[in-house]
Amino acid sequence: MSNSTWSQQILQLLRRMNNFYLPGSRRSECLRFEVNGAQVGWVPPHVASVLTRYPKVFCPPRRGALSLCPSWDSNETRSAAVDSVLRTERQEGSLTCLKGWRDEKYSVMPKFFDPPLMWMERAATSLFGVKRYGVHVNGYTIGNSGEVSMWLARRSLTKQTYPGLLDNVAAGGIAAGVSIKNTLVKECQEEACIPATLAEKACPVANVSYTYMDEEGVFAESQFVFDLELPLDFKPRAGDGEVQDFYLLPLDKVKELLATDDFKPNCAMVVLDFLIRHSFIDPDTEPCYQEFVAGLHQTL
Amino acid sequence: MSNSTWSQQILQLLRRMNNFYLPGSRRSECLRFEVNGAQVGWVPPHVASVLTRYPKVFCPPRRGALSLCPSWDSNETRSAAVDSVLRTERQEGSLTCLKGWRDEKYSVMPKFFDPPLMWMERAATSLFGVKRYGVHVNGYTIGNSGEVSMWLARRSLTKQTYPGLLDNVAAGGIAAGVSIKNTLVKECQEEACIPATLAEKACPVANVSYTYMDEEGVFAESQFVFDLELPLDFKPRAGDGEVQDFYLLPLDKVKELLATDDFKPNCAMVVLDFLIRHSFIDPDTEPCYQEFVAGLHQTL
C-alpha cells in the first residue's frame, strides 16, 4: 500500500468514526436527551418515536429535547423507569441493538466525573446517544535491539460486535461505579490473562474520543488509553472466550493493518494514537498528521 | 494550590485559548477569508472595514466571505498585492498588530501540506485568521533515580509578545518553505544553543491546536510538538537574545506553574500535553482529564 493510500484510508476511518460531526450528518434530526435539565445524550428520530409511547417515563419532545419526566427524581427511580421501558422494548424487538443486551450497567451523567443521574443497560446507551467510557491497552514489547512490537488480539467469532476483527490486547467499558484503573486491571486479567501485578504497570497516556451515528443509534465514546510494556517472555492468553488468538507483530505490520478492514475501528484509532505518540509517524512526511491528531479527539 | 483549583485554572486557560469556538464568540461576526475559492482564514469586522478600502485587492464582502480579487492569480502576485496593502496600513498605524512586523513570510494554504496559495507577513496573519504553524520542544532530563525534570526558558523582557514569561526550551514558527524538522533544529540552536546533533534526536510526539480571538485578530495556531531528552550535564544557553534565562525544574514544580500567569499560554498547553502523555496526570483523580485532552486539540 502506498503512503498516500494509507493516509487516505486512515482519514476515511476517522471521518466514519466522527460522522456525527460532519456537515450534513443526521445530528440535526436528533433530539437532545435531557435528565434533570442536563443534556446527557442524543436520541435519533426512530428511537424517539418509540420512547414517546411511554408518556409516564418520557415527556413529549419540546424545543428539540426529549426529557425524562421530572417525577422520576432520583438515580434509582430514573434507572428503574427507563429499564422497565427497555425490557419491554427488548421483547418487542423493534430496537435491534437491544438484542445485544448485556446486563451491564453504565452510568449516565453530563461529564465523566459528575455524579451519575441514573444508570442504563450498556446495549441501550446508543439509543440515547449516552456517552460510554472505556479503557484500551496498547500492549507492546521492546526487543533487544530496541525494535517495538505490539500484541494484538483477534476477537472471537462469537462476539456480538465486530467478530473476528483485530483488537487491542485488552479493552473494555467502564461499568457504573468502577474506577478506570480497576477496569483496566480486570480487562487485562479476563481478556488476556495479564496478571494484576503486571497490568498495574500500565501507564495512562491519552484519551481518544469520537462520535458516530448509524441506523442503530448514536455512539458517543471516550476511551482512556494506557500503554503497557510487556516482558519479552510474556505471552497473553485468551481468558474469557472473547478472544480467539493473540499475535505479536512488528509495528510496521501493525501500521499497515490499521488501514484495512481487519481492525475494529476504535482499536485502530487507539493504535494510531500510539504510533503518533511514539514517533512512528513523521509530521514532515505524513500530510495528514494534524488531521489524524484532530480526528482522535473529537468531542461535542 | 489545591488540585481542584489547579484543574479549574487549566480549564480556564484552555477555554481562553479556544474562545473562538465558544458559544457566543465573535466568530459569527467574522468573514471567511477566501483565496482562489478556498477558505484560508477568518477576518474580524474591524479588519474587514480596513481591507475593503482596497477594492483592487479585495472583493466587496459577499455571502459572509471576503475574497482576494481573482485577478491576482498566482502565489507571487497575490503575495505582492496583499503585502503592499499591509505595508501601507503599517504606516497608517490603525491595525496595531502590524507594529510587530517581523519580515518573516508565512505560507497561506487551506491545509498544512497543500501547495501555498500565497505568503503573508507573520505579524499580519492574525488579521486574516490565517493558520500559523509552529514547533515546540519539551526539553527534559531523567535523573539517576528516574525523576523527570524540565528545562524552561524565561522570555526576554524585550520580546514583542509575552515578555518575561516562561516558555518551552525552544519554539518557533514555521516559515514559508522550511520543514518542520529544520525549524526545530534552527530554533534549538538559535534560542537555546542546543547543537544540531542533539536537536536532531528530538522525537515528534503530538500536535497541539487552538484558536482564540482578541481585539487584534484571530489566532489560529497548530504546533508540532517534540520531546527532547537532554543529557544531565547539558545546559541550554540563551542564544539570540530572545531568552533571558533557563531553569531546570522538577516536574511537580512545572505542573504547579502551569496554572499561573507566569507561563506563556500556548507553552503551558504544550507542557500539559507532555504531562498527560508521560502519565503525570492520573485519569482516576483528575476530573478534567478528558476536557484537557479535548482542549489541546481543537480545530475548525
Automatic annotation (TrEMBL), chains A, B:
PROSITE patterns: NUDIX. Signal peptide: none annotated. It comes from the Eukaryota. InterPro entries: DUF4743 (IPR031804), NUDIX_hydrolase-like_dom_sf (IPR015797), NUDIX_hydrolase_dom (IPR000086). It holds the Pfam family NUDIX. It comes from Gasterosteus aculeatus aculeatus. Residues 120-273 form the Nudix hydrolase domain. This is Nudix hydrolase domain-containing protein. One of its GO terms (molecular function) is 8-oxo-dGDP phosphatase activity.
